[in-house]
Amino acid sequence: MDAVSIARCSDYSAAQVQRAVHDALTPLGGMSAFVSEGQRVFIKPNLLSKAEPERAVTTHPEVLRAVIREVRACSPASVSVGDSPGGRHSATSIRGVWDACGLTAVCAEEGADLVLLDDDVVRVPNPSGSALYAYFNLGRAVVDTDVLIDLPKFKTHGFMMFTGAVKNCFGCIPGLEKAQFHLKVPDRDDFGEMLVDLMLACAPKLAIMDAVVGMEGEGPAGGTPKHIGAVLASAGCVELDVVASAIAGFDPMEVYTNKAAVGRGLGPKTADEVDVHGTPWRELVPDTFERPTRDLSRGMPPWLGRFARRVITSKPCLERRNECTGCATCKVNCPVSAITMVDHRPSFDYDKCIRCYCCQELCPPQVIGLKTPWLVRTLVASGRGRRA
Ligand code: SF4
Ligand code: SF4
Asked: Ligand 1 atom closest to Cα of 352?
C-alpha cells in the first residue's frame, strides 16, 4: 500500500504552495523518486470548464507552477500539461479554458508545453474492463509519456460523491466521448468500476492533490469553495482518495471510485489504514462540510434502482432562467438527448434523464441547479458537518 503525505498550505501565494508541494513530496523520496533525467513528463490537472481559479472548480495554477518547478529540477527531457475539459470544444475554446484557469500564463512562465488532448487520440486496450469499454481512447500525450503526474482538485461530485485522483483520469478521454460513457455506463457503481479501469490504463506514477481550497456541496462545478488548507501527495491514487474523502467527512466507501478500487484489493477501506506522513488527516477535517445530494437508490437491484433514481434522486432544472445565455452547451452534452431548447432555454425530459449531471457540470454560467426531493434534502441536512 502506498503512503500519503500531507503538507499544510494556508493560501495560494507562490512561496507557500511551492513549500507545501516540496514538503508533501519529501517523505515520498522527493520528485526525483518519480522523475529521472531525460524522461518525458505529462502533468494532468483538473480543467473541468472555463472557470477562474478562485471558483475552486479547477486545479489552481500555483499548484501547477510548483509541480512544474519540482519536475524541472529533475532535468526531464520535456514537461507538458493538458486535460480535455468536459463538453464539445474546438482548439480555440480549449485555449479559452486554459486562459481562464490561469494555465496559459503559468506554462509560458515555467517553460511547459500546453497540449490539446482532443487532437491526437490513441486506442488503448482494456483487458480487465467490461465489453462496453473494451478499450479507451486516450490523448496521445497521456500514452506517450514516461511519467504521468495526476493533479486533482479536492471536490465533491454529484455523481461519484467525491472526485480525486482516480476520477481526474476521466479528462484523459477526449471531448464529447466522456458524455457517451454516461450513456454506456449509467449505474454509479459501474461508472466507478470504469473509472478504476481507466486509472489503471492511464497509470499515473504520482498524484498531487490541490486541497488548499476545495469545493463542498453540489460539486464538481456548482458547489461552494471550501478552505481545507493542504496539499496531499501519493504514488497511490486510491490511497490518496481514501484519505481525502475522509477529510471531507465521507466514509470512503460511500465514494464510488473508492468502493470499486477497494473491491479489487487496490486500497484500504479507511483512512486510518493508510500510512500518512506529515499533518495528521483528522486535523484537516472542517467543522462543517456540505455533502452532495445522496443517491438513495444505491444498493438496490438495478431494475429497482433505475425506478428509484427517477423518483428520489435530484433532477437537473434551470434555476436562474434570466441568466441562461441560450448557448445549448447543456443540450449538446446530454448523453441521452433529454434536453431540448425551447425559446432558447433548456427543457428537461425527466423520463429520459439518467441523472448524470453533465448538464449541470458544464453549464458555463452555472445556472442549472438540482431539484432535490424533500426526503433526500432532510437526509442530506442530517449528514452535514458529520466527521468521519
Ligand atoms: S438532462 Fe442533464 S442530468 Fe439528465 S441525462 Fe441529460 S445531461 Fe444528464
Ligand atoms: S442552461 Fe446553461 S448550458 Fe444550458 S443553454 Fe442555458 S447557459 Fe447554456
From this structure: 5
- End residue of a domain, out of 253, 284, 315: 284
- Domain co-membership, 234 together with 358: no
- The answer, yes or no, to whether any atom of ligand 1 lies below 6 A from the CB of 112, is no
Q: Which of 256, 284, 312 is the last residue of a domain?
A: 284
What CATH number is attached to the domain comprising 375?
3.30.70.20
Q: Is the pLDDT of residue 383 over 60?
A: no
**Residue with CA closest to ligand 1 atom 6:** 334
pLDDT for the residue numbered 180: 86
Domains identified in the chain, total number:
2
Please, which residues have CB within 8 angstroms of residue 60's CB and are 6 or more apart in sequence? 12, 17, 53, 102, 153, 210, 212, 213
Q: Within this chain, do residues 319 and 234 fall inside the same structural domain, yes or no?
A: no
Q: Enter the pTM of the model.
A: 0.90
What is the pairing mode between strands 161-163 and 206-216? unpaired
Distance 153 CA to ligand 1 centre (A): 23
C-alpha span between 222 and 314 (Å, rounded)? 14
Task: Determine the pLDDT at residue 297.
Answer: 61
Question: What are the pLDDT digits (tens) for 109-140?
Answer: 999 999 988 888 999 998 777 777 899 999 99
Ligand 1 pocket mutation pick from 183, 353, 362, 368 by most atoms within 8 angstroms of CB:
353
336 lines ligand 1 (CB under 6 A): yes
> Would you tell me the crossing angle of helices 61-72 and 103-110 to the nearest 10 degrees?
20
What ligand has the least distance to the C-alpha of 182? 1
346 and 235 fall within a common domain: no
Least confident of 56-70, 205-219, 264-278, 285-299: 285-299
Q: Any idea which residue has 467525491 for its cell?
A: 162
CB of residue 305 inside a 6 A radius of ligand 1: no
Task: Determine whether the shortest distance from the Cβ of 324 to ligand 2 is under 6 A.
Answer: yes
Each residue of 329-378: pLDDT tens digit? 999 989 899 999 999 999 999 989 888 889 988 898 989 988 877 766 66
How far apart CA 240 and CA 207 sit, in angstroms, is 8
Same domain, 96 and 202: yes
Range of the domain at 353: 302-383
DSSP state of 45: E
Report the residue among 325, 334, 357, 366 best suited for mutation to probe ligand 2: largest number of ligand atoms under 8 A from its CB.
Answer: 325
